[in-house]
Structures are given as structure tokens and as C-alpha cells.
Write a structure and sequence with these properties.
Distance between the termini of chain B: 39 Å
Largest interface: A-B, 10 and 8 residues
Strand content of chain B: 15-25%
Strand order of the largest sheet of chain B: 2-3-1-4
Strand content of chain A: 5-15%
Order of helices and strands of chain A: HHEHHEHEHEHEHEEEHHHEHEEEH
Radius of gyration of chain A: 21 Å
Low-confidence stretches of chain B: none
Helix content of chain A: 40-55%
Oligomer: heterodimer
Radius of gyration of chain B: 21 Å
CATH class of the largest domain in chain A: Alpha Beta
Number of helices of chain B: 5
Mean pLDDT of chain B: 91
Mean pLDDT of chain A: 95
Structural class of chain A: alpha/beta
Structural class of chain B: alpha+beta
Number of strands of chain A: 12
Largest sheet of chain A: 7 strands, mixed
């Protein structure tokens, strides 16, 4: 049977994830120090895990409302109001999803007509462009530059807007660069969105992980933006809950209603034990989250210092748990550099190109790994570049 | 089996350098390093901490000793429930003891209310927990072998018979 002819064309057109390619090489080798993972090195704080266990013991194993448990949505609305300074009505403007990934898919499918253009900034998380394609949209890339600290400039967004543009996707702090947006840039971008009547989808998954005492600012909090913004957030990074697969979307009711239509038929609801754990995270998880954040902060400072000292230029990211060092001066492609580093020193870091073509010449190193291993990894990278 | 003298030394003062330990025990530094690494790996050595007089450090935290009576489980005895309690960040120590209660749980919190909340919302609500009795710590005299009040300097003769 010719399977190539039975796969839908728009799905067949999506390339394999660069991360997956690379990780097939790493898998099965136990001597590798990995700076390649995209998740916290902490287990979920025990009190959150315990809340999930407790809910199971009490027999809470049923479906929930399609939107999610009302008590969780109330906790979310309260948390979002306190943390992002934007108010949503728990009953109709909050949708609990299976991770932010599902929420992205729902929002794109709910809003795009075939051929609509979606602007997103690159280097970026691997799912954005494929998700747009799967929703029959057209991905339009805006490249962020190292000189700007990988922040998104309003001028660059303006240049990408066409009459077909419907949506702008933002992700600050950014995976893989750790970049954060300045208030000035966000205000410029907000102005453009209002002028051109664009909807903004902002992926806030790393927003708690801001360093140097900086307060996070979401575009949703800027004047005139609440009505045209879909705020997406989740529990994976801040509360180390990746495996719980839980996220949420906050937006004006008509948008939530449209997203819910897809969610109720495709997913029905998010798992109830994850929802119960999430309530505990929002109500009592901030001290544990702050402890983890401070630990990432120390490790960020260490890694940035070491890389720059050994002669690898690396900007200081304001958030997330990644650094995105510039390896262009060594004359190797990102992929070659990463492969040779893996072969000669058994250190795994992801080639920048896994996050878009504009990642060429860079490497993503995740510093959410034990301090002892980080130190060894840095020593090994230093030894490796001495051979180049 | 008697305790390894290296372990004894580390127990009394963890901040000895590898060099000092090697010298004291007539071992090579490499031997000391290897032994310690093996203990850290197999869980014989769990960690290193300073013993701090919290009152001196100006800390306001409160501690309580909580006697917990539990129902042992078929197959697992006290272990599963004890571990479930022990994993909470608020629990500093957790022991199984003989006598009038089963578990001695040492809990730390920012204030009285936080500890009380932990007991009423987390501990007492667990299936298998029959009762709790909370004793708040008022003053520490000795901890991990360290007296909290100095004994004053005793005049010792420089030379004595």
C-alpha cells in the first residue's frame, strides 16, 4: 500500500521535529550529561503530588465540566488577577486544557480560516509553526536577533503584517532563548495589534521564571489588549508539573466558547486528578515555586559566566531556564557543533536550528540540571572548544 | 561492623577538607575522595548541613513535635504512610517510635498558625491517621550534639602536673 498518498498533504508537509532527530542519537547512551531537556529537574513539590493522591483516595475519578472544575477555574482567575493583573470571569472566560500545547491548537483551530496568516517570532518553541499549519493557517516568521537580546521589535512585526494577518503569537520568556520583552516593545506591539485589528495569543508558560527581581509583564495587561488577547498558561514549568499535562486559556467569552467546542469533542476534559493537583499548586505552591526559581537563577548566573569566560558569547537571559550561546565564531554549523560535542565529550545540547532556521549558529543549553553535572558539562565544553 | 573512622570524622565536622581527612587518617586524598563519593552515591551520606542556632540568627520560625497514632497497613506496616508524611516540606524529621504513639513528626512553619494548619489539613485528614498530639518547641538546649549555650571558658592551667 502506498501510505504516502493516504497521509493528508498538510500533515505530510510538516517536517520532523529537530529535537526528536537529535534525541534519537542521545538515547541509549547512559554516559551523557544532557543540557537538552526542556523541563525542570525537580519532581513536582510533594504537597502537590499528595493532593493528587488524596483526591484519588477520596474517589474523585470522574469527568469534570468541559471547561474544567469550577473550583480550579476560580483559583486560576484569582491567580491570574494577582500575577498578571488581568481579570477574567471564572465561569465563562477560563478553559482548562491538557497542557498549553492543547490550548494553542484549540485557539488556532477556533480562529483561523484556511490561508489566514499567523505571525510568530523565531527562534521559538518547536510546535508553533506546525500547529499553525495543522489549523490550515500560514506561518509568518519574524526573526528576533541576538543584538536585541532576542526580544521582538514592533518594527519587525509591522513589516510582517499583511491584509491576511489574523493572529500574533508571543512567548516571553522565550524557549529557547530565555528572552523577555520590554514594556516599551510590548506597548509598540500592542499598538500595532489594535491598529490592524489582530488577535494576540500569548504563551506565558515561563512567566514565573523571571530573574534579577524583574516583574513579568503580559501584553494582556496593557490598555485595550484584554479584549483581543488569549492568555495561555500552565503548570508545567513554574510548578514542575510537566507530566500532569495541565494548562489553561483565559480570553473573552466568545473565544473561550469557540475553543471549548473543539475541546469538548476532541478531549472532553482535562484529567481530574491533575486538576485537583493544580488547585493545590495555585493555592499553596508559591513558596515551593520561588525556591525552584531561585535555584534556576543561581544556575543561570553560573552558566552565563562560565560560557563567556571560556570565550563563548552568551547573552544573559531574563527568564526561563535556557541559555542560547553564540557559537558562530567556531565555524561549525549548529548541528555539527552539537554532534561533535556529543561524540567527543558526551554533552548533549540542542542545535539552535531545531527552533527555526534563524537558530543557526546557536545552541540551546538547558540549565535545569544538577549543579555538579552543570559544572562538569561546562568543563567539558571548555575542553571541547579548545580542540576546534 | 564498627563505623569507618572517616565517617566518624565527617559526622563530627563535615567541613574538613579532603587533605585534612587524608592526613588525619593516614590515607591518600584519592582514597578519601573515592570513599566519600561512594557513600554519597549509595545514600550512606545523605547531605551536609550547618547546625544553626536559629534564635541567634533572628529566625522567627516555630517547630513542633507531633505524636501521631496510625493504623498499620497490611503488607506495608507503617512505611507507606510514614513516607507520605515525611515528604512534606514542612516535616523536618519523622521517626517511628515504640510506646504510646507510633510516629514522632517534627514540623517547622513560619508561625503557630502555619503548623496548626498543617496538622489539621494535612496530617489529620490522612486515611490511617487516628490521632495527633502537638507539642510546640519552646527552647532548644542541645541539637545534633551541640549545646546551644556555651559553658563559659574554663580557666585551664597552661602547664599542669
Amino acid at each position: 500500500m502506498d501510505y504516502s498518498s493516504i497521509i493528508a498533504k498538510h500533515i505530510a508537509s510538516i517536517p520532523r521535529s529537530g529535537i526528536r532527530d537529535f534525541f534519537e542519537l542521545v538515547q541509549g547512551r547512559d554516559d551523557v550529561i544532557s543540557l537538552g531537556v526542556g523541563e525542570p529537574d525537580f519532581a513536582t513539590p510533594w504537597h502537590i503530588r499528595e493532593a493528587a493522591i488524596y483526591s484519588l483516595e477520596k474517589g474523585q475519578t470522574s469527568y469534570t465540566s468541559n471547561l474544567g472544575l469550577l473550583s480550579l477555574r476560580k483559583s486560576i482567575a484569582k491567580y491570574v488577577s494577582r500575577f498578571f493583573h488581568v481579570d477574567y470571569v471564572a465561569e465563562k472566560e477560563v478553559l482548562v486544557t491538557v497542557g498549553v500545547s492543547e490550548a494553542i491548537d484549540l485557539a488556532l483551530r477556533a480562529l483561523l480560516n484556511p490561508g489566514d496568516e499567523v505571525i510568530y517570532h523565531e527562534p521559538c518553541y518547536v510546535s508553533y509553526s506546525p500547529s499553525i499549519v495543522m489549523a490550515y493557517g500560514k506561518p509568518v516568521t519574524v526573526v528576533t536577533k541576538k543584538e536585541d537580546g532576542f526580544s521582538l521589535k514592533p518594527e519587525a512585526v509591522a513589516a510582517a503584517i499583511t491584509p491576511r494577518t489574523r493572529l500574533l503569537m508571543l512567548n516571553f520568556p522565550t524557549n529557547p532563548t530565555g528572552a523577555c520583552a520590554t514594556r516599551e516593545d510590548l506597548e509598540g506591539i500592542a499598538k500595532l495589534c489594535i491598529e490592524h485589528d489582530l488577535i494576540v495569543m500569548t504563551d506565558e508558560i515561563y512567566s514565573e521564571l523571571r530573574y534579577d527581581g524583574e516583574e513579568h509583564l503580559s501584553i494582556a495587561a496593557l490598555p485595550g489588549m484584554r479584549e483581543r488577547t488569549i492568555l495561555l498558561h500552565g503548570f508545567s514549568k513554574a510548578f514542575a508539573m510537566t507530566g500532569f499535562r495541565l494548562g489553561y486559556a483565559c480570553a473573552p467569552q466568545p473565544i473561550i466558547e469557540a475553543m471549548m467546542k473543539i475541546h469538548q469533542y476532541a478531549m472532553l476534559c482535562a484529567p481530574i486528578m491533575s486538576q485537583n493537583a493544580a488547585i493545590e499548586a495555585l493555592e499553596n505552591g508559591t513558596p515551593a515555586m520561588e525556591k525552584m526559581r531561585d535555584s534556576y537563577h543561581q544556575r543561570r548566573d553560573y552558566v552565563v559566566k562560565r560560557l563567556n569566560e571560556m570565550g563563548i558569547e552568551c547573552h544573559t537571559p531574563g527568564g526561563a531556564f535556557y541559555v542560547f550561546p553564540d557559537i558562530r565564531k567556531f565555524g561549525l554549523s549548529s548541528k555539527e557543533f552539537a554532534m561533535r560535542l556529543l561524540e567527543s565529550e558526551s554533552v548533549a545540547a540542542v542545535p539552535g536550528t531545531a527552533f527555526g532556521e534563524s537558530g543557526e549558529g546557536f545552541l540551546r543549553c538547558c540549565y535545569a540540571t544538577g549543579f555538579d553535572d552543570l559544572k562538569i558539562a561546562m568543563d567539558k565544553i571548555e575542553r571541547f572548544i579548545a580542540t576546534l | 561492623m564498627s563505623t569507618d573512622p572517616l565517617l566518624e570524622l565527617l559526622r563530627s565536622k563535615a567541613r574538613h577538607t579532603h587533605e585534612e581527612l587524608a592526613e588525619l587518617l593516614a590515607l591518600s586524598e584519592a582514597e578519601v575522595r573515592a570513599k566519600i563519593a561512594a557513600w554519597e552515591k549509595d545514600g550512606t551520606i545523605l547531605g551536609y548541613q550547618a547546625v544553626v542556632n536559629g534564635e541567634r540568627a533572628g529566625e522567627q520560625d516555630v517547630q513542633a513535635f507531633i505524636e501521631v497514632k496510625v493504623t498499620p497497613e497490611r503488607g506495608g506496616g507503617f512505611d507507606r504512610l510514614a513516607m507520605r508524611i515525611a515528604r512534606f516540606d514542612q516535616v523536618v524529621s519523622c521517626y517511628l517510635a515504640s510506646g504510646g504513639y507510633d510516629l514522632m513528626v517534627v514540623v517547622e512553619g513560619r508561625d503557630l498558625r502555619e503548623v496548626a494548619r498543617f496538622v489539621s489539613e494535612r496530617l489529620s485528614t490522612l486515611d490511617g491517621v487516628l490521632s495527633t498530639a502537638t507539642h510546640f518547641l519552646l527552647k532548644t538546649y542541645k541539637q545534633n550534639g551541640f549545646l546551644f549555650e556555651g559553658e563559659g571558658s574554663v580557666e585551664r592551667l597552661a602547664v599542669s602536673p
